[in-house]
């Protein structure tokens, strides 16, 4: 009720500076929290309310569905002043022009999986949800994809054509966020990362203009979008390479605690595998620890191109005694269909660092993590996992040899990305779990630095909000990205007004 009384004045906000100054600071209560209405938000919500789709306001039935239910991490639920759901690229461009002229703060959500508060949602500003930009068009060797789609949508569209794209490894991850930060897929070792497989981007710039960006047109921005995240514009369409692959060979293997040393060695060997002409194969490799029952289990979810079963590239894992082992030949769509990460799953935080593959040291990190989990065992709903991702030399060679590159600038050297993914239930534990995860990560990374095993590379998809991935990219790449940002976004719409994600900084 309080909200309705206050918000009915919104119409006045753009009418003149007097009305706007009356509204500035007015307190608004929403189902998800309160904020003081800023002049910029009042102006932008008012102007966007005149578009054909209008805006969703805090008193609308859809408000919570958009501002909370669309997110994986409960911590990401915030209270925007209004929500705009563009139906076309023109709507996106118009919104950006409005944000610039109103000086309004805004946030953008694709699949809603980036998991720290403010990375994709906002308090008291405008939330732009991209879900209606869900077109998909399959061509002979590419697919055109709207940023409102998940990777399951993409694999489903390609299924009857017998083709796959290089995207997310799980079902509900959004296309835009993953593609703009890099993109770990099962087949990086042969085809590079998701970003290396984008042949063109349609982009709405901060001033409301729209451009198509590819290797021949705006080549500087084409490079910067390959890992440079949300610093340059809103992508309204991705055109992605696809590969002929009607079937893939999959393996699910689960091990108990006695298998962990061999499991970790197999992960390190996968990173070190350096083949001229690799068979495309990769995995999700995770250890779960239940601090109450003290039961540990590790799992590998592996996928390989082709129809050889069991998949040959996982022989190091298959040699480990397993409690479960399921091998199948199936399509990418049917594999991904069961790998869901439901929205509003829990409060969750990531922390990660990278290192050279050294099984003994990686095993000591696992042990340190497990001991540290015991210290927070009383946290309600605790769900700790230790995750590893591999970067094989051949994954880097794709960008090193394609004449385009990407902003990571990684060498053809093997890396292990080790990550703590920690879920919990209650807001009262936020600061405790966040401090625990960060301190543990920094302490273990420091040991790796001293041993000469640490890498500065930080992947945005595995990082916590406290981390600065740009600090681990080559300094010349960061300087070049900043120049490109100045030329495409001279008014700083994406640095001053756009909340969240990993920002380049000054
Ligand atoms: C359960 C889980 C599994 C994961 N699996 C993988 C994996 O297999 N491989 C991998 O590489 N990563 C993975 N990740 C990390 C994932 O790639 C990132 O969280 C990514 O940001 C998700 O994309 P999204 O569209 O869902 O995110 P969102 O949270 O919607 O967006 C992420 C960021 O991109 C910005 N953004 C969104 N759309 C656009 C756009 N069109 N233009 C400009 N900016 C935009 C947002 O503002 C936000 O800052 C996983 C994460 C989770 C939680």
Automatic annotation (TrEMBL):
Keywords: FAD, Flavoprotein, Oxidoreductase, Signal. Pfam families: FAD_binding_4 (PF01565). It comes from the Eukaryota. GO terms for molecular function: FAD binding; oxidoreductase activity. Residues 1-19 form the signal peptide. Residues 76-245 form the FAD-binding PCMH-type domain. Belongs to the oxygen-dependent FAD-linked oxidoreductase family. This is FAD-binding PCMH-type domain-containing protein.
């Amino acid at each position: 009720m309080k909200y309705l009384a206050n918000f009915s004045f919104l119409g006045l906000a753009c009418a003149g500076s007097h009305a706007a100054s009356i509204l500035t600071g007015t307190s608004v209560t929403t189902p998800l929290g309160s904020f003081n209405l800023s002049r910029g938000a009042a102006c932008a919500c008012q102007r966007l309310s005149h578009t054909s789709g209008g805006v969703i306001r805090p008193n609308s039935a859809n408000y919570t569905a958009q501002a909370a239910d669309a997110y994986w991490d409960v911590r990401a639920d915030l209270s925007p002043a209004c929500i705009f759901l563009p139906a076309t690229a023109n709507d996106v461009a118009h919104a950006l022009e409005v944000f610039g002229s109103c000086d309004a703060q805004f946030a953008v959500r694709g699949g809603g999986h980036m998991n720290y508060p403010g990375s994709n949602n906002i308090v008291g500003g405008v939330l732009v949800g991209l879900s209606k930009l869900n077109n998909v068009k399959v061509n002979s060797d590419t697919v055109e994809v709207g940023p409102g789609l998940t990777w399951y949508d993409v694999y489903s569209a390609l299924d009857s054509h017998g083709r796959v794209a290089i995207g997310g490894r799980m079902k509900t991850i959004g296309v835009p966020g993953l593609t703009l930060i890099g993109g770990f897929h099962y087949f990086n070792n042969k085809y590079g990362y998701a970003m290396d497989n984008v042949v063109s981007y349609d982009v709405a710039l901060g001033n409301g203009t729209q451009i198509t960006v590819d290797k021949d047109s705006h080549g500087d921005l084409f490079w910067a979008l390959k890992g440079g995240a949300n610093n340059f514009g809103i992508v309204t369409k991705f055109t992605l390479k696809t590969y002929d692959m009607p079937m893939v060979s999959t393996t699910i293997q689960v091990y108990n605690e006695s298998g962990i040393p061999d499991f970790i060695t197999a992960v390190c060997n996968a990173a070190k595998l350096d083949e001229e002409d690799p068979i495309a194969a990769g995995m999700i490799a995770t250890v779960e620890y239940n601090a109450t029952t003290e039961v540990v289990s590790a799992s590998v979810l592996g996928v390989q191109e082709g129809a050889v079963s069991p998949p040959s590239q996982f022989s190091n894992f298959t040699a480990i005694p397993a409690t479960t082992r399921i091998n199948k030949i199936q399509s990418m769509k049917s594999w991904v269909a069961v790998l869901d990460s439901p929205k509003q799953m829990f409060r969750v935080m990531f922390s990660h660092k990278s290192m050279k593959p050294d099984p003994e040291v990686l095993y000591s990190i696992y042990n340190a993590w497990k001991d540290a989990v015991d210290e927070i065992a009383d946290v309600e709903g605790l769900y700790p996992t230790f995750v590893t991702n591999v970067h094989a030399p051949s994954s880097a060679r794709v960008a090193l040899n394609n004449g385009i590159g990407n902003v990571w600038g990684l060498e053809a050297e093997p890396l292990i990305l080790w990550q703590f993914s920690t879920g919990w239930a209650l807001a009262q534990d936020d600061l405790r779990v966040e401090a625990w995860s960060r301190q543990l990560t920094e302490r273990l990374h420091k040991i790796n630095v001293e041993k000469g095993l640490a890498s500065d590379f930080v992947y945005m998809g595995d990082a916590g909000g406290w981390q600065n991935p740009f600090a681990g990219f080559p300094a010349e790449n960061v300087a070049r990205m900043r120049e490109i940002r100045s030329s495409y976004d001279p008014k700083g719409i994406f640095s001053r007004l756009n909340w969240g994600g990993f920002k380049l900084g000054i």
